[in-house]
Amino acid sequence: MAAGIAARTAHFALHRMPASDPESESLIGVVIPKRWAKRAVTRNTIKRQIYSVSAISKLPAAAHVVRLRASFEGFRSATSDALRKAVRAELLQLLSQAAA
Q1: Helix or strand or coil: residue 8?
Q2: How far apart are CA 53 and CA 96, in angstroms?
Q3: The domain at 5-99 falls in which architecture?
């Protein structure tokens, strides 16, 4: 995280550390603090969305860390479809910024 923020949205920040070997693959890590997602089911739902979206994105060869910076408010359930869609849309926006 010392490398700085490569991309940012309302709820997420993406940190990138360039790879020393240009032929290496892109690695992804996730930080979801209890402070912003109180329930484990919510944290796991967000992690699953991050891993699934990062698998289809075209990130450069580097070590990436996606960090939750703020809580998602106003959702009825801790793992509702509306929450999944909101998280996925914001992650697509974040990773498109990072790929550019």
Answers
A1: strand
A2: 11
A3: 2-Layer Sandwich (3.30)
**pLDDT tens readout for residues 34-67:** 999 999 999 999 999 999 998 888 888 888 999 9
**DSSP annotation of 2:** T
CB of 63 closer than 8 Å to CB of 27: yes
In the numeric block, which tokens belong to residue 71?
């809580």
Q: Judging by beta carbons within 10 Å of its beta carbon (0-12, 13-18, 19+), is residue 10 exposed, middle or buried?
A: exposed
Q: Rounded to 5 degrees, what are φ and ψ at 65?
A: -130, 125
Q: What is the pTM of this model?
A: 0.86
Domain boundaries, given as residue ranges, for the chain: 5-99
The whole-angstrom distance between residue 86's C-alpha and the CA centroid of its chain comes to 12
pLDDT in tens, 11-32: 999 998 887 777 778 889 999 9
Residue 63 CB coordination number (10 Å): 16
